[in-house]
Amino acid sequence: MNRLTEYMLPPARSTLAAETDALFHFINVTSIIFLAGITIAIIYFAWKYRRKSDDDVTPVITHNSKLEIAWSVIPLILVMIVFGWGFTGYMNLATPPDDAYEIHVEGVSWRWDFKYENGATSVNELIVPVDRPIKLIMSSADVIHSFYVPDFRVKRDVLPNRYSSVWFEATETGESTIFCTEYCGTQHSNMDGIVNVMSQDEFDTWLETGTEVDESIPPAERGEALVAQNGCNACHSADGSSGVGPSFAGLWGTERTFESAEPVVADENYIRESILESNSKIVEGYDPVMPSYQGVIDDQQISDIIEYIKTLE
Q: Which pLDDT tens digit goes with each residue over 31-85?
């Protein structure tokens, strides 16, 4: 069964995965058995009762009570097994342990924002400790999203104006991919991220120092990393190609024209305003779809992004 799981499914990296996979295999194996049995029966009866001569007459068949009861009761039993098994799994998924570490998740077109109990934040990278229950309290800032980590076998819709939750416990360190599985706009396919599973000591260290600036890295390089981490490159290219938003290439120092505002030069103030008040000025030819990064990135990070944009000609 382990080889079948490895062949058909992503790696199982949470305590919930084994139960989910077992139900998946039960449904598949049962379906294959019935498919094979029914197919063989059809072929056998088609051959056995084929018309052998022009004098053959189909006999009058009324019914067989035992057979009819069997093909009604057996599927009912199987359906009830699947229902009970699935309901038990759902309740386990919906009931986190009391000692679960809580992380707030906000889905925004098109990124994932994470906020931890001590106030630390991350974007598109969920950082968690191994062998510890994690409860995600999720909401959406705009439209319906869906948080899905195949390796953990967890998936839950993320809705505007209400909270949903899901929990998991990672069983090994490493990285797993996060997907949005509810169509949420033109860049839906780019709304992904990673779960970075660390040891408890590494996680505690990250909570204390993870948001500190590494002064050994040049500001422009830090800015480039921030653009990738915050999902900016999903809409803004660095090579001049068109996208959902204007390209960063050649942006610095040029005059920008807007739908309903006077033109301005792209300087520090303009870029800062575009990040924090993203829809205050809409460049001609583009839609007002960029979310605000107010409270997501700080002044130092904005300065680093500006330094990066300055390098793109």
A: 999 999 999 999 998 888 887 777 777 777 777 888 889 889 999 999 999 999 9
- Tens of pLDDT, residue by residue over 100-153, are 999 999 998 888 989 998 888 888 899 999 999 999 999 998 899 999 999 999
Helices (H), the chain: 2-8, 17-48, 65-94, 200-209, 219-229, 268-276, 299-310
Query: What are the structural domains of the chain?
Result: 2-49+63-94 (1.10.287), 101-209 (2.60.40.420), 219-310 (1.10.760.10)
167-202 burial, b at 16+ Cβ within 10 Å, e below that, comes to: bbbbbeeeebebbbebebbebbeebbbbbbbbeeee
Q: Supply the Cα-derived Rg of the chain in whole angstroms.
A: 28
- Two tokens, residue 13: 């990296």
pLDDT bucket at 210, cuts 50 / 70 / 90 = low
Report the Cα 107 to chain-centroid distance in Å. Answer: 10
CB atoms within 10 A of CB 272: 15
User: Which 3 state secondary structure label does DSSP give 189?
Assistant: helix
pTM exceeds cut of 0.90: no
Query: CB neighbours of 214 closer than 8 A, spacing ≥ 6?
Result: 222
Nearest residue to 226 via CA among 114, 113, 305, 311: 305
**Residue 38: Cβ within 10 Å count:** 10
Using CA atoms, how far apart are residues 172 and 199, in angstroms rounded to an integer? 9
Rounded distance, CA 147 to CA 170, Å? 16
Backbone angles phi, psi at 150, to 5 degrees: -55, -40
Beta-carbon contacts of 281 under 8 Å, excluding residues fewer than 6 positions away, are: 256, 258, 261, 264, 270, 273, 274
pLDDT at 14: 93
